What does this fold into?
Amino acid sequence: MRVEAGTPHPLGATWDGRGTNFALFSEHAEKVELCLFDRQGRRELERFALPERTEDVWHGYVDDVVPGQLYGYRVYGPYEPERGHRFNPNKLLVDPYAKRLSGRLVWSDVHFGYRTASARADLSYDRRDNARGMPKSVVVDEAFTWRAGAGPRIAWEDTILYEAHVKGLTQLRDDVPPGWRGFFYGLAAPSVIDHLRRLGVTALELLPIQAFVDDRLLVERGLRNYWGYNTLGFFAPEPRYAVDHALDEFRSTVARLHDAGIEIILDVVYNHTAEGNHLGPTLSFRGIDNLSYYWLAADKPRYYENFTGVGNALNLQHPRVLQMVMDSLRYWVEVCHVDGFRFDLATTLGRGPNGFDARSAFFGAVRQDPVLAKVKLIAEPWDLGSGGYQVGNFPPEWSEWNDVFRRTLRRCWRGEGDLIGDLSTRMTGSSDLFRRRGRAPRASINHVTVHDGFTLADLVSYSNKHNDDNGQENHDGSDENWSTNCGVEGPTDDAKVLELRRTLRRNLLASLFLAQGVPLLLAGDEVGNSQNGNNNAFCQDNEIGWVDWSGLGRPGEDLSELIASLAALRRKFAQLRPRHWLVGRRQDGSLDVLWLTPRATQMTDRDWVFPEARYLSYVLGPPGEHGTPVFIVLNAAEQPIDFILPAWPRCSRWLCALATVPVSKKPAGADYRVGAHCEAPPRSVLVFEGAE
It folds into this structure.
């Protein structure tokens, strides 16, 4: 094989039909070697020094290297941890721009740049070759035939998100072909698509699918990094979710979901990598240029800043690291046609020398990028560093997970009082958090449950977490869950307890879908999926972490029809998915919201502070002059509450559109006439639509 100079752009391995160009950034390296391996990745066939260096990019072009070729890098430079340098050419490194990985990481001490048994710890130096147990980067052909036209392009206001794990969603579904269960293909199985469309879901939000590794400690316990928040390759789809070729299988899945009108949102982890802290392994970034890729302690660069809680944090203040993240995002949009991203611990991405900055280089780069301008951007608006909680402080084009909504709704429906003021704000888009810098209600991603925490069934079945299966003596996972066991901890045959749990599930789902903002539903909540009280199933690649579909079609347990009805209500009434904030009385004199007492009078300051209040009702006026008003009643009290159906312009009666609990005391006659007395059953949600 002949090695030529090649070009410094694009980074990664690029096949042109004759050979492959290799380009790798390393500011502080002294030499970079490219290593080619056989198809099994066991034997190193060739080793070349990349001949050119242009603006800290090492590059070379190799004839006759074709798609399918396995490769890795060895990078030479100083091994001086106390100065931030950790080069060790004895360690084969994954290309940060690899589009495909082959093989899995086989854990052993040889993957560490230092001698693990040495008294000097990471200041020592390990000379053993780790190539045999390393996954290999693979040269790929990115060609793929897409249908003409853009994806579904669902407006933010019309979006309903469904968070799921690739394997967990389908592993236990009998109506998915056996060879597809647990893989990308399973996401687009006809039965899965039919189920999502029946629910009214418009976007499937997937837990991380970028290539990741299982932590050594978990492997030694017989567990895995099931959720995947341990990224090794930001461009490569995770091989464990593919039957054969991960990139093509993922793109085929995206195409099928798009044909069904369903968008794909990826949960991405650009805040840290799988290499851990100063005692972690050398797998890629650490050995390529540790000083450039990571946030290091300013006074002691041997150690890492740990905003993320997992040992390290990527330094997006460095232009080449920022470039890698931006290139990765564009790759998933342009090559894989994904429709948006949910950014894990997004505060870290906006950190600068003085902490979080909504005008940081990362946010500026995203804002001006023409490719990313057309996709959905969602922040998990916190990290574990100082000043890490930043809910409401992200740029205008972003939406954010609203944990305040989650906390309020959980507290309300488990029976706490004095929350109606807070509840009213959460149900109308959380303007106290997001009404700034031109943002709209869609900035609030409302959720009651997500992957991190209790499932909906467990939220009303357990007062305490039960994470013993994680091997950490139940110390992991949050202790602050705002849950209730309804009188019995865990499984029970008590009919009253079971009915109360079903009622609370219905109320929480109804509140989620009736709230202004964007609803996010956790996969399996519709069928009563349980994790046996485990609120941190990150390592449970088994029946605990997989969705249990046995409740599908079971009366009482399967709430799919309720969710479908709620989604239909959102589609029918524009005021449930507004583009603008509520103002009370509009300029034309009409009302967009009217807060009411049970007597159908407008609430006063005194009503808002009514002791132990658990009842809230309000009318959402139509956006236009001739639309239909919606009257919503939330009764979290343990007793029924009589209320009067309110008056509204051009409205003579109200039609009951939804009741989470059967209404036993109805007004006389077939219609709910204005002024009629009605009863909100204990712990119930009622929805009425106005009629002339």
